[in-house]
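Consider a typical record:
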Amino acid sequence: MPPKASKKAKKSDEPEAIDLKHLSTPSLTSQELCMSYRIARVPIAENSSKNLWSAFEYFLKTEDFVGADMARKFIQMGMTRAKRYANHKGGKKYDRSEREVTRDSGERVELAKSEGHQGREEKLAASEVFKAVWRRCTSDERYLELKKEFLEEQKVWDRQAKRGVKKEEIKGEEVSVKKEGDD
């Protein structure tokens, strides 16, 4: 696990490079990738997307689809988040949160897109930086192959779940399964 930062990073700080030697695999925490997730300006977005791409490649090299997909997800979030800040000043898309709607009842209304606000062009450019890297991720042959294998395994798991197979005990790498009714 990478060493913990001594101070909380500001959103405008340059993201630190991911230490691939200490990156968790096969499971990972999103916190490790979150440290590299920054969209403030184009140079920061370029550095952030480069770090996330390195993590993506590392997970592909270790054949860890879940890790690679998590890195791809952070790259995609960078693209969509920067786009939201480009389309809505302050990044606020709705007049209130889901929690407020549930608590106070009523409706959630989407705010009109703002145009010409300060920083809009830079956020659009930052979104395009992430978009280019995201497209590289989604078209990577190794990623597509691992995704195909994962989805095939998932179909098997889903079929087993429908037949009533339950996980009973997990110890290390050994997994015992038990059908309902077997005691």
Summary: The beta strands are 165-171, 174-179. The chain is about 55% helix and 5% strand. Residues 20-139 form one domain. Confidence is low (pLDDT under 50) at residues 1-12, 168-173.
